[in-house]
C-alpha cells in the first residue's frame, strides 16, 4: 500500500553507523522520512530510527546488501510500493577493507552497486530529486595524489571509478530533472575506518592531522544534507576539509 506522505523520502545507504547514521539523523531533523539502510546490523539501524523518531522525526529501516542486485531491486520495489517515490538518494555505503572481502568486491560495491542503485531508484524520483555520492578526498583525488594509506589504494580507485561511472549518467539524471552532487571529505575524525587505517599506517593519518583539523562526522553529514538542498546540483563536488588538496594545481574544477 502506498503511504501518502508530504515528507520528502530520503534513502541513506549504509546508515547503521558512522557518517551514514549521522546523515540519516540530520535528514530526520529536516522533517524528511528517512529510510535507514543497513546490510547486517539491523539493531544498529533500528537504534538510528529510534533516535530520529524520539527527536520528533520520521524514519524506518530498510535492509539490503547493495552489492547484491536482487537486494537492490527488492529495495526499489519496496520503496515504490510503500511511498510511491524517492526524493533523495544518498550513496554512502562503501567498503572493501573487510577481512573476508574477495579481490573484486571493492569494485563491485563502490562502482557497480552505486550505478545499479542509481538506475534502480531513478524511475522513482520526481523532477527536483537528488542523487548524492559520498566519497573521500583520497579517492576523489587518487589520480592526482596517489599517496594514500597502505592498503587503501584499491578502495580509493574503486570509489573514483564509481564516481566517474555515476558522472557518465548525469545526462540521464538531467533528462529527468534529477540533480547529482558529489560530497568529498578529508579523513573524518572518530570514524572506525580512520582507526583501522591508523593501525595499518599511522604516519599517513598523522600527516592528514598535521595538515589541519580534521572534519568531524557531524560536519561531514551536515555538508551532505546541505548539498541535497542546493539548487546547484549538476555534477558539483562539495569539499569538506583538506584545504591543501584544493590549493593544489591538480584541482581544476568542482565539476569533476
Ligand atoms: N571515514 C572517513 O574518514 C571518510 C572520509 C571521507 C569519506 N568517507 C566516506 O563516507 C562514507 C561512510 O564512511 P564511514 O566511515 O561512515 O563507513 P563505515 O563506518 O565503514 O560504515 C559503513 C556502512 O555501510 C554499510 N555497508 C557496508 N557494506 C554494505 C553493503 N554491501 N550494503 C549495504 N550497506 C553496506 C554498513 O552497514 P552494516 O554495518 O549493516 O554492515 C555501515 O552502515 C563512505 O562512502 C566513505 O568513503 C569516509
TrEMBL record:
Q: What is this protein called?
A: 3-oxoacyl-[acyl-carrier-protein] reductase MabA
Q: Which GO terms describe its molecular function?
A: 3-oxoacyl-[acyl-carrier-protein] reductase (NADPH) activity
Question: Principal localization?
Answer: secreted
Q: Which Gene3D superfamilies match?
A: NAD(P)-binding Rossmann-like Domain
Q: Which domain of life is it from?
A: Bacteria
**Keyword presence, ATP-binding:** no
The UniProt entry, under InterPro entries, shows: NAD(P)-bd_dom_sf, SDR, SDR_fam
Q: Give the keywords, sorted.
A: Cell wall, Secreted
What is the scientific name of the source organism?
Answer: Nocardia coubleae
Query: So what does this thing catalyse?
Result: a (3R)-hydroxyacyl-[ACP] + NADP(+) = a 3-oxoacyl-[ACP] + NADPH + H(+)
Q: Which family does it belong to?
A: Belongs to the short-chain dehydrogenases/reductases (SDR) family.
The entry's localization annotation reads:
Secreted, Cell wall
Enumerate the transmembrane spans: none
Amino acid at each position: 500500500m502506498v503511504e501518502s506522505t508530504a515528507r520528502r523520502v530520503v534513502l541513506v545507504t549504509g546508515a547503521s553507523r558512522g557518517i551514514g547514521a549521522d546523515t540519516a539523523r540530520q535528514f530526520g531533523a529536516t522533517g524528511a522520512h528517512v529510510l535507514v539502510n543497513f546490510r547486517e546490523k539491523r539493531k544498529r539501524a533500528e537504534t538510528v530510527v529510534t533516535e530520529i523518531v524520539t527527536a520528533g522525526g520520521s524514519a524506518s529501516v530498510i535492509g539490503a546488501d547493495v552489492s547484491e542486485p536482487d537486494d537492490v531491486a527488492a529495495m526499489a520495489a519496496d520503496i515504490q510500493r510503500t511511498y510511491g517515490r524517492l526524493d533523495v538518494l544518498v550513496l554512502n555505503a562503501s567498503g572493501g577493507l573487510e577481512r573476508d572481502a574477495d579481490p573484486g568486491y571493492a569494485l563491485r560495491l563502490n562502482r557497480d552497486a552505486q550505478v545499479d542503485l542509481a538506475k534502480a531508484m531513478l524511475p522513482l524520483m520526481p523532477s527536483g530529486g537528488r542523487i548524492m555520492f559520498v566519497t573521500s578526498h583520497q579517492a576523489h583525488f587518487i589520480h592526482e595524489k596517489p599517496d594514500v594509506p597502505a592498503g587503501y589504494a584499491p578502495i580509493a580507485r574503486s570509489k573514483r571509478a564509481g564516481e566517474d561511472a555515476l558522472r557518465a549518467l548525469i545526462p540521464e539524471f538531467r533528462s529527468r530533472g534529477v540533480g547529482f552532487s558529489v560530497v568529498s571529505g578529508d579523513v573524518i575524525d572518530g570514524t572506525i575506518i580512520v582507526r583501522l587505517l591508523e593501525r595499518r599506517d599511522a604516519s599517513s593519518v598523522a600527516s592528514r592531522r598535521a595538515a589541519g583539523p580534521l572534519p568531524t562526522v557531524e560536519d561531514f553529514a551536515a555538508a551532505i544534507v546541505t548539498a541535497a538542498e542546493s539548487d546547484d546540483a549538476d555534477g558539483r563536488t562539495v569539499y569538506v576539509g583538506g584545504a591543501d588538496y584544493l590549493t593544489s594545481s591538480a584541482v581544476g574544477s568542482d565539476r569533476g
